[in-house]
Amino acid sequence: MIKAANKTGLVFFPAFDWAISPTHPEREERLLYTQDQVFEEGLLDVDGIVEFKPDMINRDDIRRVHFCVPDEWAVTTESHLLSAGGAKAVGSAVLEKKVQKGFALVRPPGHHAMRVVHGARGFCNINIEAIMIEYLRDAYGVDRVAIVDTDCHHGDGTQDIYWNDPDTLFLSLHQDGRTLYPGSGFPHELGGPTAFGTTINVPLPPQTSEEGFLYVLENVIIPVLEDFKPELVINSAGQDNHYTDPITNMRFSAQGYAKLTEKLSPDIAVLEGGYSIEGALPYVNVGIILALAGMDYSTVREPDYDFEKLRQSSAITDHIRKVCDRVMDYWQEAPSLREQMLDSGGITERERTIYYDTDNILENQKEKIVVCRDCPGVWSVESWTDRGKRIYAVHIPRKACEKCVDIGMEWYEKTPFRHFDIIFLQDRKNKVFKSRRPS
Amino acid sequence: MIIGLDVGGTHTDVVLVDSQGLVRQVKVPTDIDNLFDSVLGGLDEVSKNIDVSRVSRVVLSTTLTTNAIASGHLDPVGMIVSSGPGLNPEIFRTGKHYYCVQGSIDHRGREVQPIEPTEIEAIASHLRADGIEAVGVVGKFSVRNPCHENKIVKILGKSFNYILAGHRVSGNLNFPRRIATVYLNAAVYSIYKNFFDAVSNALRAKGFVAPILILKADGGTVSLDASLQYPGQTILSGPAASIMGAVPYASENGESIVMDIGGTTTDIAVLVKQVPLLEPLGIEIGQYKTLIRALKTISIPLGGDSVIKVKDGVLDIGPERVGPAMAFGGSEPTPTDALVFLKKMESGNFQKAKMAMEKVGGLLGCSPADAAERIFSEFCHRLTVVAKDMVTSINQKPVYTVHEFLESYQVSPTELLVLGGPASCFASKLSEVSSLPVRVVPNARVANALGAALARTTCEITLFVDTERRVASAPEESFYKPVDDRFSVKDARELAFSLLRTKALQSGAKMEDIDMEVTEELQFNMVRGFYTTGRNIRVKVQVKPGLISEYKQITSTEA
Ligand SMILES: [Zn+2]
Ligand SMILES: [Zn+2]
Predict the structure, then answer these.
(1) B286: nearest CA in chain A?
(2) What is the pLDDT of residues B264-275, one digit of tens each?
(3) Which terminus of chain A faces fewer neighbouring Cβ atoms within 10 Å, N or C?
């Protein structure tokens, strides 16, 4: 009988009864053919591949990560709780050493969900990777984590959540934001002052193929991971870089995804996007599972796969090389720039407008962070939407110093209601998550 | 009158029942090397001095195919396998005559690559030259479209004794299991056919006119004729016989754990409202994982005759059996000796049992009485732990919809039914250890043969509808029907039930025993671009495992 070299845990939760709307890409049918392929290949019978049942996450699991407006239940459905719960179950199995590798093949996805949640954007409501990671940090004491986001869309939600966290490396490769939703993810987006450099973006031109992706892997991802030395590598394994994907323009393949997975060798992979439900997902997922399990995937390919036809042009190859060089320059320079910012200290602010395409909400944010030498720095955000919601939220980081804790508590307790409907506190250090609302 | 016969590892149990209940019960030793004599001997014994033409049904459960696999006495099989993209099909090689060929079908049943007839012809002549008589033909996704398998079967022609196509063994998706299942069916075919031709001829010669039914691993029966095509269904029917024997005594509204405590092993199963739970895909035997429908059972190497050992002062029971208990003439101490010594079992030689317990007590550094108590209690603890783990794993079954997750049915048994030789001796202790009420199945020693006698015919249908491709199909039945886009999930369910009814009748069922249920029902809108282009419907229905309607009257006189 066949045996997995790496014991691999799967949570398969296709949510066959949940859709954003009947004809939406994120609909019941999405993982149907993937399930057919996985079942027909008999992967769940492989010695060393184990299937786990998802848990449903609880309110604190969400509150560790998000500020949900008006509350957690208003912006989620059971399907979201199970999808994140699938990631949580897989992550726990890996940390408890029941398995060496884990893959949460779940939907709906989550990587466009930011720290503040007013609704759904990019098909996402809550960030399933972040919920998993923060749970694992509290439950198992994990510290340094790297997230490699290989979805075709920039993982702007995950980037936002970890913008000020120097212990979480967020590395996204994606189709260039000038040509695709959400329009962000440029190399100069490097993180907040105390975490400067631990956000890395590698935008790729349309028509990038296997060669390009693997070039980024060899020349950016692997060297950066070697420097960063994470305890845990998470792959946000979106599959919409595939050459048949209906909403993107890339030329990646099942073979390519399998090679990427093998070389990256993440501890945990979490499915994100991928909407070529018949032409890509069945084969890509089989490839990823085999690669994670350390099995031979050389015969996994799409029925219409043609390596030569999918080759990228030399202009694209050149372009990608330049982008990677630039990204690596930033990676080298970031630590000294961060030092300079820490020397200056003080409070840094940023202002942004965020559009929720799925729910058609426009949000404005004003964020301020204490640039602290002794910790990642307490920060807060004011957020107001075109629906008339106004909130103020305070985040005290996991490793906050006493001074930052005091500042955070003061912000939380002393900020007057005048402008706000809700004032939130996310005290990761003391694991206190609460809110004040006018009575 | 009905005869039920169950061949076990050491004994063959036979019962004769009529409308009044159990008329006769017989136990004869099983001769593993000559099962034919065991079967015939048992039947002769039970039908002594009766008019055999009045027997209305004979049900046989044998270890024939199970033994053939366990001992490796299998016929060589030619396997022709087409896979397409995915795992390398070489991984699933079944033996020397295994050929991977061109041709592939995708998950929707669309042809991706055609088969190459000359390739098949060449293989056929190789197989003929090698003297192969049984051939299996398996394609990936053949249950979505069997056209390749059918074409290959056609090319193979009539020059082989037995040809089985993968889509006929199960409607379930699982290519490696499909290969194993087809292989095992083909590999036991001639052994099975020769054996049952002989049994059938012998019975006819003795004047039996009753239909002969065979017990399957799913606790259901199938007519001998219908079983010849799929002899693999009888693999591991043994545990099923016992579990079916417990069915009439199980709670009608609750959940029950059943333990069949034998000499060498104990089989454990779970019943929900008298219906045994089934394996999701099929039995596993040796290295083979199959699509052969089976009751969900856990077999553990722990029985009344398991050898007791003491290692570094720690008591261990089993897994091996070296013979009967010392109290029954054996050489090693066993749990049965503990029972005899504790006077929980009336038969057996007390002095020998005492010697056995003195031996164990000596090694443990305690009195013979303490040794016996420890063995007794350890035995019950181990069974209870396995049973509870089994329930936990049933409740951990993955689910694929939000609804199933929220509604997911959690099994929590409220009683324990025990049967098998020493069952009654363990009852009170098992109850104490498991905190469940324990009942001993009446006629516990022959309940297996009774289960076989009374089991109804079972079967399953998987219907797959793709309205975009305009087809409804149940490839197992070679059933195809064009449908239009108005075909609904309700239509699918009705169609599946009607196919199931036909199949059950053909397999030997009586109309009144066809108790059908839906085991899976999924419907998806298929959207391409921004338009709904069709519906993808999957319906699975089964005749529940259970007993023939006559049983109530028969068993009520026993209880
Ligand atoms: Zn995406
Ligand atoms: Zn600080």
Answers:
(1) A1
(2) 899 999 999 999
(3) C
